[in-house]
TrEMBL record:
The keyword Transferase applies. InterPro entries: GGa_phosphorylase (IPR033746), GH (IPR017853), GH13_cat_dom (IPR006047), Glyco_hydro_b (IPR013780), O16G_dom_2 (IPR045857), Sucrose_GGa_phosphorylase-rel (IPR016377). This is Sucrose phosphorylase. Its EC number is 2.4.1.7. It catalyses: sucrose + phosphate = D-fructose + alpha-D-glucose 1-phosphate. It comes from the Bacteria. Residues 52-483 form the Glycosyl hydrolase family 13 catalytic domain. Keywords: Glycosyltransferase, Transferase. It comes from Guptibacillus hwajinpoensis. GO terms for molecular function: sucrose phosphorylase activity. Belongs to the glycosyl hydrolase 13 family. Sucrose phosphorylase subfamily.
Length: 574
């Protein structure tokens, strides 16, 4: 087995670094594998299933005075979400200098304001954890970059030096900021590659020393309690002048090396790639179905769902869902609606028209949000990201809490119904709204959905009957519990999209191994929608039983606004 993995890695490393360098790098990689392999305990559960529901949160999204936020998070989960949430994506919890954690100063230490590695370990005993591997770039305040500036030879090739006079017009730019940053070093003035900001210095993977360092960091994260590793902004890892410098062959080879090393040293580790790009490019990180990411983010889902609930039309969402190809048994999608970032709109290029995207952006601004723009390279700009709390994004001003909650739960049901693993952002779970004070305080649009909550105040609101938090939290917990007990919602269960009405999204989920089948029917509109029994009858045996309302349906249905049904044959038990 060792010979097989060694040959596989050697082949990829040779394509990256050439034959001569690959020999020594392969040897060092194999030593790394052996160093960590004996430390790992294989997880009992090697893959995901319908019970996997992940909460996405910052380490300090919920705080209590005098207590480490990571401890507060663990206690809140234990007190309120033991049966609903079994996995937690803790956004970067390392020391950082900007971008709310995504400009990491030290990959191997914990931000003292959040807690310690002991707190992380305690959380890992309670929930599966996803760590962020922010490995496209590192903080300008990091030791690595400071040593580079000093002229330390050990770090001289850790970063991408560039000629400011060269032509970078083909390079894909995610933000309307300069690509290169001028710095003063002990060896004179240099221009270095900074894809995201002048504080986020891109790492140079043409250096095998950088790759070895990063592989060691990834294995350290597994040792510290991670089951999932999120490779942040992974598409930009390899730079090549005269190209887009995104999704290059070398980038895919790097991901394949990481996957191979992790599978050999820590079987059961699940790799998830974060690439906020059009769908075709995004799913390219599945590789051949067994050699790159296990999970990829389903980036078109947030804007398409938003569009559906803003317009009351599910047509584009339905057509997109029909276009999804089945995944392999060892790959699936990571579904989400809201996140710590905004709602990216690049993934719906070719799905929604520019005018539809602009209307969506206009509604977001009407609802108190903001729009971030990208540089198109021709002097023009277009929407890149909608910055708003998701609940507010689909709401209408002046409506009741009950109506807001019902519409929002219907949107979350889309997330929970489709094939893949659901990731629910903490502020969606808690029924939060726009944090406009946060934007004023930081000057950053993304702060609108990154509020820090005091646990005692939060719990008081959650317990207040009829409050928005109370309605959303309890209804969403109920929906999650039903999903977790339904084998038809296994991430790899087949998905067939039905066309019932332009205002309805409907999918049939079938677990081929157990025979369990559910027809999900979701009214995305504020209208009453009739649904004929003949449209769902072929997929249920006998009378249909709705898992949500706990009633038997034996005739045509009239869907109330934003109603959700999960229909199963009344003859089938869980």
């Amino acid at each position: 087995m060792e010979t097989t993995i060694k040959k596989s890695l050697a082949n990829k490393l040779e394509r990256l670094y050439g034959e001569q360098r690959a020999l020594s790098v392969t040897s060092e990689v194999m030593e790394l594998i052996q160093t960590y392999k004996h430390k790992q305990i294989e997880p009992e559960k090697k893959w995901v299933d319908e019970k996997d529901i992940m909460m996405i949160t910052y380490g300090d999204s919920i705080k209590e005075e005098g207590e480490a936020p990571l401890k507060t998070l663990r206690e809140f989960l234990s007190d309120h979400l033991t049966n609903e949430i079994n996995a937690v994506h803790i956004l970067p919890f390392y020391p950082y200098s900007s971008d709310d954690g995504f400009s990491v100063m030290d990959y191997r230490t914990i931000n003292e304001e959040l807690g310690s590695w002991d707190d992380i370990r305690a959380l890992s005993h309670q929930s599966d954890l996803m760590f962020d591997a922010v490995i496209n770039h590192i903080s300008s305040k990091s030791k690595w970059f400071e040593e580079y500036l000093k002229g330390n030879e050990a770090y001289e090739d850790y970063f991408v030096e560039a000629d400011p006079e060269a032509d970078y017009s083909k390079v894909t730019r995610p933000r309307a900021l300069p690509l290169l940053t001028k710095v003063e070093t002990s060896n004179g003035e240099k221009h270095i590659w900074t894809t995201f900001s002048e504080d986020q210095i891109d790492l140079n993977y043409e250096s095998d020393r950088v790759l070895l360092e990063v592989l060691d960091i990834l294995l350290t994260y597994i040792e510290k309690g991670a089951r999932f590793l999120r490779l942040d902004a992974i598409g930009f890892m390899w730079k090549k002048l005269g190209t887009t410098s995104i999704h290059l062959e070398e980038t895919h080879l790097l991901v394949q090396v990481m996957r191979g090393v992790l599978e050999e040293a820590a079987p059961g580790t699940i790799v998830i790639t974060e690439t906020n790009v059009p769908h075709k490019d995004n799913i390219s990180y599945f590789g051949n179905g067994s050699n790159e990411a296990h999970l990829v983010y389903q980036f078109p889902l947030p804007p398409l769902t938003l569009h559906s609930f803003q317009t009351g039309e599910a047509s584009e969402l339905t057509e997109w869902a029909k276009s999804l190809e089945p995944t392999t048994d060892s790959t699936t999608y990571f579904n989400f609606l809201a996140s710590h970032d905004g709602i990216g709109v690049r993934p719906v290029e070719g799905i929604l028209t520019p005018s539809e995207v602009q209307r969506m952006a206009d509604k977001v601004q009407t609802n108190g949000g903001y729009v971030s723009y990208k540089d198109n390279g021709d002097g023009t700009k277009s929407p890149y990201e909608l910055n708003i709390n998701y609940l507010d994004a689909i709401s209408t001003n002046g409506e009741s809490n009950e109506k807001k909650a019902k519409r929002f739960i219907a949107a979350q049901s889309v997330l929970l119904s489709l094939m893949g693993v659901p990731g629910i952002y903490v502020h969606s779970l808690l029924g939060s709204q726009n944090d406009l004070d946060g934007v004023k305080e930081t000057g950053r649009y993304r702060s609108i959905n990154r509020e820090k909550l005091t646990r005692s105040s939060l719990e008081e609101e959650l317990q207040t009957e009829g409050s928005l938090r109370n309605l959303v939290f309890n209804d969403l917990k109920t929906l999650i519990s039903i999903r977790k007990s339904t084998k038809a919602f296994h991430p790899n269960a087949t998905q067939q999209v039905l066309e019932m009405d332009r205002r309805v999204l409907s999918v049939v989920r079938t677990n081929e191994q157990t025979g369990d089948r559910v027809v999900a029917i979701i009214n995305v509109s504020d209208e009453i929608v009739p649904v004929q029994q003949e449209t769902f009858d072929p997929y249920v045996k006998g009378n249909a039983y709705d898992l949500i309302s706990d009633r038997v349906i034996s005739s045509d249905i009239t869907l109330s606004p934003y109603e959700v049904l999960w229909l199963r044959s009344s003859e089938v038990s869980s």
